[in-house]
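DM between two lab members

TW: hey, do you still have the DUF2938 domain-containing protein entry open?
JB: yeah, one sec
JB: this one, 164 aa:
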Amino acid sequence: MASPEDITRVVLMGIGATAIMDVWLTLMKALGVPTLNFALVGRWVGHLCHGKFAHASIGQAHPIQRESELGWVTHYAVGIAFALLLACIQGVAWLHEPTLAPAIAVGAATVAVPLFVIQPAMGAGFAAAKTPTPAKNCLRSVITHTVFGLGLYLSAVLIAWAWK
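TW: and the structure you got?
JB:
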């Protein structure tokens, strides 16, 4: 059973990894690479809460009040959930002595959620098939989620060091 300390570590690790991913996305955006608008995630979640899962195009769906804030909260909540997934797979001992490979593997594997759930539900098709450049979009997603995995590891290392 996880202790309150372990739960705190997981939450901090998820926040840290998501923040590292956001730094990566900011860098990509500064270089002119298209990135996800989290307001559209908020719009999707808002419609999901009203019973609508799939959209022909989330950009054309009716806007939701405070969708940007909802999108960012969802983004960080999912990051924490993925950190919890890593802790469940590796066990809480991993939080105290993190290793790189499991964090990268879980981070990279989380790309399945946007490719096979969120993108189709938002109207982009499975693995971005309905976008102008599906292969590029998939590669960007894989890289971004691998960066998230690196963020899981770096956050866990920093938290383990700070906790000593």
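TW: got it. The mean pLDDT is 96. The two ends are 21 Å apart (CA to CA).
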